[in-house]
Each structure stands twice: as structure tokens, then as C-alpha cells.
Design brief:
single chain; 489 residues; alpha+beta; DNA polymerase, domain 1
């Protein structure tokens, strides 16, 4: 049993234990290491000022794969075996003992040349995100730059100069992080301890980081009140805002089985720790409708660490993923000491933030049957902004026709009740009827009888009731083969 976290910071190996292991990464960097280039603003993963690069061993085990993450909602105990690079260490100059200002990277120089910084507070975060884009994308175009920077906010520049800086940096040949920091020694040290279970205590605080599901469920049986984290994109926010008071943590980040992801035959099979980036990469060609939704789920920094399991267990009635998973009849695997069982996602949620998860059980895997290619699938998200916004209304509609009549129908709405709702009466009403405007108008009247939306800051009850009707007509309008799905914003 190991009592510390192996973390690599700008090329330096650190062994972290005690209270430092329980800090958010941003606090650790700024307060304990004096690396104040990492800024803290929102503490929610919304603004990107705290962005750093996080490197983890790639599939070959011979190099690090670097992605941008929000350090304000990532705990140090989640980072065993990772290499964190901050703005101070981008050029490798910090490790070499040279002042960073004397050795700017092409991205940093482009921000200077193109006046991409005014007040400068957000600038390090932008630089880190831009560097992360160049780590994973060869010759990104303007759309890729804009998409890749949706997780970074600037109140000064209007972004034009930042995009200009990105395009200038793209004309150079920036060194990749594996060149700046040769990975061999760091990977060797990380891999030497990757099978070791970690348990760290500090006073009455404890965090347990198992490597197997059995270890996790055994710990959960002994500590039923433990706070479970994987991506921590929700728990990190609650912790920072003082809404989460916990002394016992169960971290699932080191259980490789939970990170599995594959598309086999007619289904997506994923571990609960599969990230939104995994789904984004895999679904663009297989289920483009779901890709359209996933690609605006949070920001790149969030998608790199946020997990499908965390989204499902968060049990939000406005969760963007659940309507799609519901109409696909997704099967959830729940595992405890007594074994595993399978539950259909449509039977999993029982009330607001309540679900069929027995004491000591974890959500471990899910199987998502792919829609019949002959059926028509449309996913909708209504929000005030296109990027980085919470849904006012979500919907998934899956309809197959035979001739001019509806053969099968599956419909799920979000933000219209205490849970994401399937609409069985509306589905039954549609089957066997002509696929035309009169049918969809009548189905809208049935649908509003199955939902109980509330008024809140994102939209009123009457607005959501109208959306419940209109979305069926929109589906009809998009049903021609040449139409494409879209995110409604």
C-alpha cells in the first residue's frame, strides 16, 4: 500500500502526501509551489484561467499524451503518474534554471506579436489551451482553434487578436512536450508504481485510490458515506463552493477496467470512467447526432476528464447525454460485493437525484445499442449559448417508418420533470399513424400531458411546453435524407 502520489511537475518528480494530496491542483501549484501563472477565477471549470497541460502515458507506454485540463477542479490525489506542465515550464526553461521570459515558445511569442493579451489575467490559460491544441492537432484551421478555445474566457480582447496569434503560432513548428521533456525517466518512475494501491491520510481525512473494482467495492462497503470521484468535474465545483464537506474519498482514476471503450458490432461498450473526449472521438462517424451534442458538452478541458459514469450518477434532469442513452435502451452494469446486475437506463432513475443503486454498488459499465441505420435519429439541445451552457430543454427522437406510416417511435425529453423522461403515451400514439404534420401536431398535445416542467432562470414552464410540441414538428421538417441534425441554441 503506497502512501503518496507520484506527480511530475515541469519535469521534476514529486512524492506528495499529507494535506497536499487533498488540495485542488490549482491551490497546490499557486500556494505550495509558487507557480502563480496558473490563475484562479471561477473555481468551476468555466473560465479556463487555471488551464494546465496534463500528460499521461499513451497506449504505447513510451510517451506522454498531453491534454488541457482545468486545474481548479482536479484534486492532487487524482494525478498519480501524471506530468503537469504549467505556463512557467512550457519551454522547459524552468527545469533548466532559465527565466521563462527569456525563452518564449512560439505560442507565447505569437500572443506578444499579435497583441493577444490586454489585462493579461486570462493569458496563461489561453497559452496552455493553444499549446494543447497543437499537441493533438496538426495544422488546425480556424474552426478548430475556435472550438478548442471555447473553455477559455477573455473580457478584454474580443478574441480576434487571440485567434490571430493562434494562426501565427500554427505557421511555426512548435516543439511537442515529449521533445521538451523527454519522457523515459518519468514514465519509468510512474509505471513502477502503477499497480500499487494508494491510501493517504491526513488527520481525519482519507483518500483511497484502488486499481481494481473489487478493491473499490470492498472500501465502499466499509465506508458507505465515501465521496466517489472519477472526473470530479462536478464534485470539484461543489467542493470549491463549500457545498461538499467530506473526509473520505474513493477515487476511481486508477482502475483501468473502468476506462475501457470500444464499438463492437451494433453497440458502444464503455467503462464508467470513459471520458467525453473518448465519446467525441468515436461517435463522429458512427453516431454523428450524438457527436453534435458531445462536441458542445462543457469545454475541451472538461471533456478531457469528465466521465460518462459521473454524468449518469449526477442524475441531472437536464443532462445532455441521457435522452440519447434512453431512446437507445442503454444497459447499465452495477457492481457490488454481491456481484453485478444489469439495469435499463429507463428503469434506473426513480425521482430527482434518486436512482436504483444499492448500498455498496458502483456504476461500472454501460452498453449503448446503436440506433438502426434505417431509423431517423435527432438530438436537440436548447440553450442560450452554443458553447459552455446548461440546457434549457433537451430531446431525443428516434423514429422508424414503413411506407408513409410510423413503425416505431422512441422519445425522451430532458428539463421537463424530475428526471429525463421517456414519453410512452406519445410513442404509442405515433405508432401506425401517418408520418405527417397532423400526426406530429397531435403527438405534441399528447407529449405535454406527460411532462411537468418548471419555471426557472433558464426558461419558463410555458416555454418548455411549447418546445415539447415544436421539437416534434422540427423533427418532421428534418426528416428528409439530405437534412442534417443540429444543436438548437
Amino acid at each position: 500500500m503506497r502512501k503518496h502520489v507520484n506527480l511530475f511537475l515541469n519535469g521534476t518528480h514529486l512524492q506528495i502526501d499529507g494535506d497536499e494530496a487533498f488540495l485542488t491542483l490549482s491551490e497546490f501549484l499557486r500556494i505550495r509551489r509558487g507557480l502563480t501563472g496558473t490563475k484562479i477565477v471561477c473555481s468551476e471549470g468555466d473560465c479556463g484561467s487555471c488551464t494546465v497541460l496534463c500528460g499521461q502515458a499513451d497506449e504505447s507506454g513510451k510517451a506522454f499524451e498531453y491534454v488541457s485540463i482545468d486545474s481548479c477542479i482536479r484534486f492532487v490525489f487524482q494525478l498519480d503518474g501524471c506530468h503537469i506542465v504549467t505556463v512557467e515550464g512550457l519551454s522547459g526553461s524552468q527545469a533548466a534554471g532559465v527565466k521563462p521570459a527569456q525563452d518564449l515558445t512560439p505560442v507565447q511569442q505569437a500572443m506578444v506579436d499579435c497583441h493577444g493579451s490586454q489585462c493579461g489575467f486570462c493569458t496563461p490559460g489561453f497559452v496552455m489551451s493553444m499549446t494543447g491544441i497543437l499537441e493533438s492537432t496538426d495544422d488546425p484551421n480556424e474552426d478548430q482553434w475556435r472550438s478548442g478555445l471555447t473553455g477559455n474566457l477573455c473580457r478584454c480582447t474580443g478574441y480576434t487578436s487571440i485567434i490571430a496569434a493562434a494562426q501565427q503560432a500554427n505557421q511555426t513548428t512548435p516543439k511537442r512536450m515529449n521533445e521538451t521533456y523527454p519522457p523515459e525517466k518519468m514514465l519509468g518512475a510512474a509505471q513502477a508504481g502503477e499497480t500499487e494501491t494508494i491510501e493517504i491520510t491526513d488527520g481525519d481525512q482519507i483518500v483511497f485510490c484502488p486499481t481494481t473494482i473489487k478493491e473499490a467495492t470492498d472500501f465502499l462497503a466499509k465506508h458507505p458515506d465515501a465521496t466517489i470521484v472519477a472526473g470530479a468535474t462536478d464534485m470539484g465545483v461543489r467542493f470549491n463552493k463549500g457545498h461538499l464537506k467530506t473526509k473520505t474519498w474513493l477515487d476511481l482514476n486508477r482502475i483501468d477496467e473502468l476506462a475501457s471503450f470500444k464499438i463492437s458490432g451494433d453497440a458502444i461498450e464503455a467503462g464508467a470512467r470513459a471520458t467525453w473526449a473518448d465519446f467525441e472521438d468515436a461517435t463522429e462517424s458512427v453516431v454523428p447526432e450524438f457527436f453534435n451534442i458531445v462536441s458542445v458538452f462543457g469545454s475541451p478541458q472538461i471533456r478531457h476528464v469528465g466521465t460518462i459514469g459521473g454524468n449518469l450518477i449526477n442524475a441531472s434532469p437536464i443532462a445532455d447525454s441521457i435522452p440519447f442513452l434512453a431512446v437507445c435502451e442503454t444497459e447499465l452494469t452495477l457492481t457490488g460485493n454481491a456481484g453485478s446486475r444489469t439495469v435499463n437506463i429507463n428503469d434506473f432513475y426513480t425521482d430527482y437525484k434518486k436512482f436504483d443503486l444499492r448500498p455498496g454498488e458502483l456504476l461500472t459499465h454501460l452498453r449503448v445499442p446503436l440506433p438502426d441505420p434505417a431509423a431517423m435519429l435527432r438530438l436537440y439541445k436548447v440553450s442560450r449559448r452554443h458553447d459552455m451552457d446548461i440546457s434549457t430543454f433537451t430531446a431525443a427522437i428516434l423514429i422508424a417508418t414503413e411506407g408513409h406510416k410510423i413503425k416505431t417511435a422512441s422519445i425522451a425529453y430532458g428539463a421537463v420533470g424530475p428526471v429525463v423522461l421517456r414519453l410512452p403515451k406519445t410513442e404509442t400514439f405515433l405508432v401506425g399513424r401517418p408520418f405527417d404534420e397532423a400526426t406530429m401536431v397531435a403527438a405534441g398535445d399528447v407529449a405535454v400531458g406527460e411532462i411537468t416542467p418548471l419555471s426557472d432562470v433558464r426558461g419558463g414552464k410555458d416555454f418548455r411546453l411549447q418546445l415539447a410540441k415544436n421539437v416534434l414538428l422540427k423533427f418532421l421538417a428534418q426528416a428528409s435524407p439530405e437534412s442534417t441534425g443540429e444543436v438548437m441554441a
